Amino acid sequence: MTAHLSAATIRSLTQEIVTAHSALEGPLLPILHAVQEAFGYVPQDALPVIADGLNLSRAEVHGVMSFYHDFRPEPAGRHVLKVCRAEACQSMGTDALAEKLKQRLGIDWHGTTKDGDVTLEPVYCLGLCAQSPAAMLDGELFARLDDEGIDEMLGGIGK
Ligand code: FES
């Protein structure tokens, strides 16, 4: 969608976002959210503009981005699959589930399949702790995911 925007356009739109948020206390997270909202991800070209605007180093901005798992460094695929990695799901085998999904899709966390179809992202609790392990595909929740559940979930998008 917006992946074709030039670096200059990304920088100038980011500058507008930074300016609009600069009066906030703790503006970095709202700015990152607004940038992701605008572009669908947080482009590399946006980072120096954010860093300069807030008097931070690029590494600091990057560090915050990677600490919170909400921010995408690259455009997402057509479908976004979020797999819960929080405690209740961990205890019900979400790691093994994630491994199966990664192998089947041929991607790692935050990766997108080569055909641009599916992006895999971690999420920390989907509110389905009693029915873990849980995942969400394009906003639809899937609970107690086992092999059959994975087939059903991915079958719905032809994977
Ligand atoms: S811990 Fe996974 S849904 Fe709550």
TrEMBL record:
Its cofactor is [2Fe-2S] cluster. Keywords: 2Fe-2S, Iron, Iron-sulfur, Metal-binding. The keyword Ribosomal protein does not apply. Binds 1 [2Fe-2S] cluster. CDD domains: TRX_Fd_NuoE_FDH_gamma. It holds the Pfam family 2Fe-2S_thioredx. GO terms for molecular function: 2 iron, 2 sulfur cluster binding; metal ion binding; oxidoreductase activity. [2Fe-2S] cluster binds at C84, C89, C125, C129. Belongs to the complex I 24 kDa subunit family. PANTHER family: BIFURCATING [FEFE] HYDROGENASE GAMMA SUBUNIT (PTHR43342:SF1), NADH-QUINONE OXIDOREDUCTASE, E SUBUNIT (PTHR43342). NCBIfam families: PRK05988.1 (NF004638). This is ATP synthase subunit E.
